[in-house]
Amino acid sequence: MTIYLSGIHYETDENFIHSLKRQLLNLGCTIVNPDEKLHDRLGWSKSLTHRLGLILESDTIYMLPKWKDSTTARIELTAAMKEKKNLCFSFNDIKNLITTLDG
C-alpha cells in the first residue's frame, strides 16, 4: 500500500514523522512524503501539480495532525476525495484499513 503524507508544515514534529514512517514501513507500506521531493525548488502551482500527481499514484492519503492549518493539505484532501482515495486521519485508521484489505 502506498501512503501519501499530507499536512506536513513547519510546526510538524520531526520525531513524530520519523516514528510514523518507521511504523508504516513495519506494516509494509510505501511512503510518499512530498516534502522530501524537490517542491521547495518549484513554484507553488508547479509544486501543487506535482503533489496532485503523487496523490493519483498513491492508494491512501494520511492526513497528519494540524492538516487543517495547511491550504495545500486541504486541496490535497479535496483531490483525494474526488479520486475516491482511502483517507486516514490516524495510525489506527491505517492499521484498520490494512486489516480490512488483507481480510
TrEMBL record:
Pfam families: DUF4406. It comes from the Bacteria. This is Uncharacterized protein DUF4406. It comes from Mangrovibacterium diazotrophicum.
